[in-house]
């Protein structure tokens, strides 16, 4: 699932509103531990020691029980099991039927058990930096910090920051999670953990969902791993004060984006919003339909048109079409945090006459080659494409000089005699205007450097589909530039 799909699937929480989301890395300590191990015993411990007593010359169950300090019935049960396995037998030629001895097979097995020698071994385990427990990630990919940064993902810091000390690790927990190349179980017995020889910091990829309380200043941060919420991570993160320590609370409380947007659009625009309950009902319908699609599409493709999965899939797709139409009929409405990418794609795919986008920068992970091809296609159709960003400083200009440079790539293009890339004033609110039928106003930059380098913010936005309101906003943005040129 994409981050947007995860946000849509888990957007509802009683008393809270989803205000931001993003890809994150959950901290994992990969520990190499020097340990003393031995081959796992093939005999249960009591069986082995009963056989050892027999090898020392003891032959009666009650005597063996006294030697081992065990109840007689425990030893009798062990003897019966060993007789069945052919490892011991009643002594031949003895009138005492309660006298036992080792068979040849029993002597051979006991010899094998006796020659096993403990050895030093390096064990590699993964330790969850949030939950503070050893975990098994067999088959699960982890990434390094550099890989997270290249994807603009946020590193979630471990609390406490230090890896666990060796004396805090429990041997049974370690045995269960030892990493093996082929994923098989660890088949040795760990006798002792000597020291942690090496520590590597890696990350487990996830999506963070930030919820702000509808009343009060509480913030909750949930984590979805492989599309599923992990309550254990959320609880541990909250108990250790994660949201406060990473600055989430401060960033959210200081956000005034909604007021800025209202000032730009006028209070009359905000008053035209549909009832929030109506929008939530549509979003629930959308989320439910998307879940049905995810759960039935594979079965529908295998079973043909007549099976129940195909019917359920068709109905869910109809619901999605219905929701999209109803949302598009609102002349103005709030923007959900997860739909900005969809609105951008709609503009890039469907612009007919003009497209204006403002951003704080051009991030190559967002303005990638696929987006450039969409822009080229619009230019070929004579669409007036204008992308406005602040003037570049030397550090920003040189940032991607070795790799793909989105700014220089876009600077090569022009349309209708004017450059596609324009430099303008620095903004805290960003705009997308497509033709006369769509405008988006938000504090999350289009194509820009994400503002979640150290945390998250309260994302706010408005979607406008009223032609007159769209045109009025377009003129408001472009008129100062016209006057300056005149």
Q: Find the count of extended strands (DSSP E, 2+ residues).
A: 19
Distance between the termini: 50 Å
Helix run count = 19
The major β-sheet equals: 8 strands, mixed
Tell me which oligomeric state these chains represent. Answer: single chain
Query: What is the helix content?
Result: 40-55%
Structural class, by secondary structure, is alpha+beta
Spans of 5+ residues with little confidence (pLDDT < 50)? 394-402, 481-486
Report strand %.
15-25%
Give your account of this protein's structure.
The chain is of the alpha+beta class. Helices cover 41% and strands 24% of the residues. It has helices at 3-9, 45-55, 61-68, 72-85, 104-114, 145-150, 171-177, 231-239, 242-245, 248-253, 257-265, 267-271, 276-303, 308-328, 340-350, 369-380, 394-398, 406-411, 467-485; strands spanning 12-13, 16-39, 88-90, 100-102, 119-128, 133-135, 154-155, 188-213, 219-225, 228-229, 332-334, 354-358, 384-390, 414-415, 418-419, 421-424, 430-434, 438-442, 461-464. The chain starts with a helix and ends with a helix. Mean pLDDT is 84; it is low at 394-402 and 481-486.
Mind sketching the topology for me?
Blueprint: H1 3-9, E1 12-13, E2 16-39, H2 45-55, H3 61-68, H4 72-85, E3 88-90, E4 100-102, H5 104-114, E5 119-128, E6 133-135, H6 145-150, E7 154-155, H7 171-177, E8 188-213, E9 219-225, E10 228-229, H8 231-239, H9 242-245, H10 248-253, H11 257-265, H12 267-271, H13 276-303, H14 308-328, E11 332-334, H15 340-350, E12 354-358, H16 369-380, E13 384-390, H17 394-398, H18 406-411, E14 414-415, E15 418-419, E16 421-424, E17 430-434, E18 438-442, E19 461-464, H19 467-485
Parallel strand pairs: 2-7, 12-13, 13-16
Antiparallel strand pairs: 1-2, 2-5, 2-8, 3-4, 5-6, 8-9, 9-10, 11-19, 12-17, 14-15, 17-18, 18-19
């Amino acid at each position: 699932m994409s981050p947007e799909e995860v946000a849509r699937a888990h957007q509802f929480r009683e008393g809270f509103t989803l205000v931001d989301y993003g890809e994150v890395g959950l901290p994992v300590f990969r520990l190499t531990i020097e340990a003393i191990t031995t081959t796992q015993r093939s005999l249960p411990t009591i069986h082995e020691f009963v056989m050892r007593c027999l090898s020392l010359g003891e032959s009666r169950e009650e005597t063996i029980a006294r030697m081992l300090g065990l109840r007689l019935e425990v030893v009798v049960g062990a003897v019966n099991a060993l007789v069945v396995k052919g490892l011991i037998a009643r002594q031949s030629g003895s009138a005492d039927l309660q006298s036992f001895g080792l068979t040849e097979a029993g002597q051979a097995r006991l010899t094998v058990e006796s020659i096993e020698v403990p050895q030093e071994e390096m064990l590699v385990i993964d330790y969850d930096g949030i939950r503070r427990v050893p975990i098994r990630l067999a088959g699960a990919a982890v990434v390094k910090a550099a890989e997270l940064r290249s994807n603009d993902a946020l590193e979630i810091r471990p609390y406490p920051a230090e890896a666990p000390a060796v004396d805090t690790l429990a041997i049974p927990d370690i045995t269960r999670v030892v990493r093996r190349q082929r994923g098989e179980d660890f088949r040795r017995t760990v006798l002792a953990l000597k020291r942690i020889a090496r520590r590597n910091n890696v990350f487990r990829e996830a999506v963070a969902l930030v919820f702000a309380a509808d009343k009060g200043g509480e913030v909750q941060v949930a984590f979805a791993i492989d599309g599923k919420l992990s309550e254990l991570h959320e609880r541990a993160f909250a108990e250790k004060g994660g949201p406060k320590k990473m600055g989430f609370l401060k960033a959210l409380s200081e956000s005034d984006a909604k007021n800025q947007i209202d000032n730009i659009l006028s209070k009359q625009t905000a008053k035209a919003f549909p009832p929030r309950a109506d929008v939530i009902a549509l979003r629930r319908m959308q989320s439910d339909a998307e879940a049905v699609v995810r759960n039935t599409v594979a079965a529908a493709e295998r079973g043909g048109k007549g099976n129940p999965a195909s019917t359920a899939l068709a109905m869910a797709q109809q619901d999605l079409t219905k929701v999209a139409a109803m949302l598009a009929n609102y002349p103005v409405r709030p923007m959900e945090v997860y739909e900005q990418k969809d609105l951008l794609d709609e503009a890039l795919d469907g612009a007919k006459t003009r497209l204006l986008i403002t951003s704080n920068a051009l991030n190559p992970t967002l303005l990638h080659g696929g987006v450039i091809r969409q822009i080229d296609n619009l230019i070929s159709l004579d669409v007036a494409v204008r992308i406005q960003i602040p003037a570049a400083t030397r550090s920003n200009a040189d940032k991607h000089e070795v790799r793909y440079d989105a700014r220089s790539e876009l600077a090569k293009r022009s349309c209708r005699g004017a450059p596609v890339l324009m430099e303008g004033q620095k903004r805290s609110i960003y705009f997308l205007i497509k033709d006369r039928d769509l405008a988006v106003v938000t504090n999350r930059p289009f194509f820009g450097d994400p503002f979640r380098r150290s945390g998250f913010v309260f994302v706010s936005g408005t979607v406008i589909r009223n032609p007159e309101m769209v045109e009025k906003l377009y003129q408001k943005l472009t008129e100062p530039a016209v006057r300056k040129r005149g």
